[in-house]
Specification:
Shape: globular
Strand order of the largest sheet: 3-4-5-6-7-8-9-10
Radius of gyration: 19 Å
Strand content: 15-25%
Helix content: 40-55%
Order of helices and strands: EEEHEHEHEHEHEHHEHHHHEHH
């Protein structure tokens, strides 16, 4: 069972995203997924205050109330803008973040998170100010580690340099949109959305700074091309305009047949085979989806296979 070290915390390299919780019609299936995830000997769970207007945390708290708190690693995030149509209006003041964290802990029925992320950046604020605020939560005993979600590598480095110089705890992990499928913040409709690109990738590879990759399955883009199902609107605008994604589908479909491995498994394997200090988040509606994707945790692609997937050569 592989884990990566995030400060004082060791997390699974396969994390169950609880973002699909919060919708009552999926509650039973999501609870089954949680059962299966723990049965497989994983224990790292990811949620956020913004998911389903807080209901995801409520449901997760209900599920976890009968478990020993030391049995699982809990990740949450705060500071997400209130209006998704106005993502440029940040919510990273000390009071807003404190409110989000305290509300999350109450919903999750716990006294602390293992890792607490600032869910977005606010480039109008100096990173020094935000790392100071995040450190308050460590001093309060409400989180063990702090992370940056949707921050550029440059901003993370600036914040961490300040932290080290001033005896503060630096960010110990980053959450970033990273998938074999290509997209950009402009296409996702959210300019505060940070996606992996060549510059970000090189920084993470050289520093080996821990990352948690989300949207690894690209909102089902590849699997829905096979089944003929329609992508949700967010997936359509994020991935359909980039023609290279269709060529990438042809290549990963070919590799899937050659290796006799499913595309969902290969999507996880791709991120974990790129030489980064990485774990991946998976969010699933059904148990069989979780089981199919989880197989990718034990697959490592060769440099030749990765080169083929990325270039077709």
């Amino acid at each position: 069972m592989e884990r990566i070290t995030v400060g004082s915390v060791k997390i699974n390299n396969f994390i169950l995203g609880a973002g699909r919780l919060g919708d009552i019609k999926y509650k039973k299936d999501c609870f089954k997924n949680l059962d299966r995830y723990f049965d497989l000997c994983y224990n790292t769970l990811d949620v956020a205050r913004s998911y389903e207007n807080g209901q995801a945390e409520e449901f997760l708290g209900e599920y976890l109330k009968n478990r020993n708190r030391h049995e699982y690693i809990l990740i949450s995030k705060g500071g997400f803008p209130e209006d998704k149509t106005k993502m440029y209006l940040p919510r990273l003041s000390k009071n807003e973040l404190q409110k989000d964290l305290d509300t999350s802990l109450k919903a999750l029925k716990t006294d602390y998170t293992d890792i607490y992320f600032l869910h977005r950046d606010d480039i109008t604020k100096k990173p020094e100010e935000l790392i100071e605020t995040a450190n308050l939560f460590i001093k309060q005993g409400k989180t063990k580690e702090i992370g940056a979600s949707n921050w550029t590598a440059g901003r993370i480095q600036q914040a961490n340099e300040y932290a080290v110089k001033n005896g503060l705890k630096p960010f110990s992990v980053s959450q970033i949109n990273y998938s074999y499928a290509l997209t950009t913040p402009a296409l996702t409709g959210d300019l505060t959305h940070i996606t992996m690109n060549d510059i970000e990738y090189l920084w993470y590879k050289e520093t080996q700074f821990p990352i948690i990759a989300y949207s690894v399955q690209a909102k089902g883009f590849f699997t829905k091309l096979i089944t003929g199902e329609t992508l949700k609107p967010s997936g359509q605008k994020s991935y359909l305009p980039i023609k290279e994604n269709f060529r990438r589908f042809d290549r990963i479909n070919q590799l899937s047949k050659e290796k006799n491995e499913s595309i969902p498994a290969l999507l996880l394997a791709y991120v974990l085979s790129k030489g980064l200090n990485a774990s991946v988040i998976g969010g699933f509606s059904k148990e069989e989806q979780l089981m199919e994707a989880e197989k990718g945790i034990n697959i490592r692609l060769s440099e030749k296979e990765i080169h083929f997937l990325e270039t077709g050569i």
